[in-house]
Amino acid sequence: MKPFILNNKEQLIKSDNGLMQTLRANEISNSICERIKQYKREVKIVNIGTVFQVGDGIARIHGLDEVTVGELVEFEEGTIGIALNLESNNGGVVLMGGGLMIQEGSSVKATGRIAQIPVSEACLDRVINALAKPIDGRGEISASESRLVESPAPGIISRHSIYEPLQIGLIAIDLMIFIGRGQRELIIGDKQAAIGQKASSVAHVVTIFRESGAMEYTIVVAKTYLAPYTGAALVEYFMYRERYTLIIYDDLSKQAQAYRQMSLLLRRPSGCELIRRCFLFAFTIFGKSR
């Protein structure tokens, strides 16, 4: 029902209860002005680029002029990547997922966040990837806090000397080999004994943990690249809460090999210089453990 025009300043309208009410023009104007004052327009600037080459877990993009090394980027189909190689007119991004739907011409945006993972008590008893995303099919992990994947280690002054032993439960080892809390220890096993082989090997190890009841206080990080850093970040979350922690790495040479292959795909220098960088990458992981 259209309102009846009474004069230039008043209108007759029908209210919700069916009664006719008179609304003055100044009331309409005041109501509009009040709405305008309450309106808040949020302008969000997003750095967006375009994919011009993708393959072998590497995407080359251009247009992300303000992206930084180690920053997380998000592709339009949801895959997350880490920007590692920045050149004058393009950048190389390592895909942290399958990225099967990423094509040439797809858009990608910078998140403004350096590589970080969510951390919480809910990570216990879970199997996650390098970005702390669950891969065990048991739902999402709720976390209200995050930590940088490559967070700086405490300085020498803030560290304490090793004075408390770590008891692993095997009397023969506890009596013969002293392992202190905060100490790094090399464990040499049989060939092909490392966890980072294939999904079935990880599933077998997780099954053993569950049968022995150890999975209740264990987090399994299953990923070839960046997994040691992710594990260290999770351990530091509990460490700074004065919880006893123990982190076990599998064969770190596989991490160096993955870094070498990734560097070759990113067209970084090969040869002896790259080999030194690969092993430096592996040994810096030990520096993060406490």
Please provide a written account of the structure.
GO terms for molecular function: ADP binding; ATP binding; proton-transporting ATP synthase activity, rotational mechanism. Belongs to the ATPase alpha/beta chains family. It comes from Carnegiea gigantea. With 290 residues, the chain is an alpha+beta fold. It folds into three domains: 4-37, no CATH class; 48-114, Elongation Factor Tu (Ef-tu), domain 3 (Beta Barrel), CATH 2.40.30.20; 118-288, P-loop containing nucleotide triphosphate hydrolases (Rossmann fold), CATH 3.40.50.300. It has helices at 25-38, 171-176, 199-212, 227-239, 252-265, 272-288, and strands at 4-5, 10-14, 20-24, 48-55, 58-62, 71-75, 80-86, 91-95, 107-114, 116-119, 126-128, 145-148, 219-221. It has a six-stranded antiparallel β-barrel. A three-stranded antiparallel β-sheet has the order 1-2-3. Strands 10-12 form a two-stranded antiparallel ribbon. Helix 5 packs across helix 6.
Structural class: alpha+beta
What percentage of residues falls in helices of 4 or more residues?
Answer: 25-40%
Number of helices: 6
**What fold name goes in the CATH topology slot of the largest domain?**
Rossmann fold
CATH superfamily of the largest domain: P-loop containing nucleotide triphosphate hydrolases
Strand order of the largest sheet: 4-5-8-7-6-9
Low-confidence stretches: 1-16
Oligomer: single chain
Strand content: 15-25%
Domain ATPase F1/V1/A1 complex alpha/beta subunit nucleotide-binding: 193-271
Family: Belongs to the ATPase alpha/beta chains family.
GO molecular function: ADP binding; ATP binding; proton-transporting ATP synthase activity, rotational mechanism
InterPro entries: ATP_synth_asu-like_sf, ATP_synth_F1_asu, ATPase_F1/V1/A1_a/bsu_N, ATPase_F1/V1/A1_a/bsu_N_sf, ATPase_F1/V1/A1_a/bsu_nucl-bd, P-loop_NTPase
